[in-house]
Amino acid sequence: MPRPTHITINLGALKHNARVARSLSDDKKMMAAVKANAYGHGLSACAHALAPVMDAFAVAVCEEATELREMGIKQPILILEGPFDLDDCHTIIKNKCWTVIHSFEQIELLEGLSASDKLALADSLWLKLDTGMHRLGIAISDITTALSRLRSLGIDTPTLVTHLANAERQDSSLNLEQLKKWREVTQGLSMPTSLLNSAGLIHHLSSECDWHRLGYMLYGGSAAARMDITPLLPVMAMNSEVMALRSIPAGDSVGYGGRWTAERDSMIATIAVGYGDGYPRTARNGTPVYIDGQICPLVGRVSMDMITVDVTDHASVRVGSAAQLWGDKVSVDTVAEHAQTIGYELLTRLPDRIPRQLIDEA
Fold first, then answer.
1. Are 165 and 132 spatial neighbours (Cβ–Cβ below 8 Å)?
2. From the DSSP assignment, how many helices (H) and strands (E) are in the chain?
3. What is the mean pLDDT of residues 236-263?
4. Domain over 11-219 is classified CATH 3.90.1300.10
5. Is it true that domain 236-359 has CATH number 1.10.3210.10?
6. Closest C-alpha among 117, 351, 156, 153 to residue 238
7. Which residues are catalytic, by number?
8. I need a labelling partner for 23 at 20 to 30 A (CA). Which of 202, 270, 273, 328 fits?
9. 285, 290, 292, 298: CA torsion to nearest 10
């Protein structure tokens, strides 16, 4: 009998979330971010499920774009980090991709291309502007120079793009400052634009762009939830089973370092999942685990292959009882909060050792 720990990817939920995004998009074009193995959900399955409803895809690096092309994806693919060297430029051209340019060093790479290669990139450039996140992008004061150098290469109308640093907070003053700079820069320029990510779209922070770049919301992440929209559905569920039960007296501790001590006679369930499977070692006592119809608290330190859960108040638990670590019963964002991280990290760092199964249920 195989170890019961496995991940379920619900492509029906993914398509549902894409439809929700479309309903919020005000007829803007939509780009699906499938970087980092589609946020840990599986690049091939997710890209093919999204292809009928997305206008384009976004990845971080050229290698991911090449994978998509080899999988048969025909839509435009935007490379968010842009080229690192001339070989990347040639890969972008070969795969007929779009690319972000975020620095003068990258503009210099373009200047070193042949005339035919420059022509091939003329309609595929996205120019990233730094409106306040200060991670990547051309400084506001340098935009005129950057546009002039691109025009000298035959690139007259790049798509202008920026990234909001705090879109999860609708009332953030940083958002307001970035939006102000964005308007000042783009006003009067006849160029396509891209501003909003998932949280920005959910909060409807602006309608002043042509493209939405959507990631976390497609996978059911709820970092920026709104009560007045159709609920997003989690695409991934991490599941396992109870592998052992034991009763311990009040005063005994559980797990490495004795982090948790029973205040009463207790029943402890051991579940076959641990940080070796991607469950966060930093999960605190009390992190919710859904076992056989009921939420129960994690107790004790997470081990490489196991966790322990207090099921004293759940009398029906047996060896073999189903357990969900995150999914439709326990949000990955809730688990992440208890582990002092974010759901993005939990989803994208899953190891290969966990079997996966695909379903298509809305």
1. yes
2. 12, 19
3. 97
4. no
5. no
6. 351
7. 35, 256
8. 328
9. -10
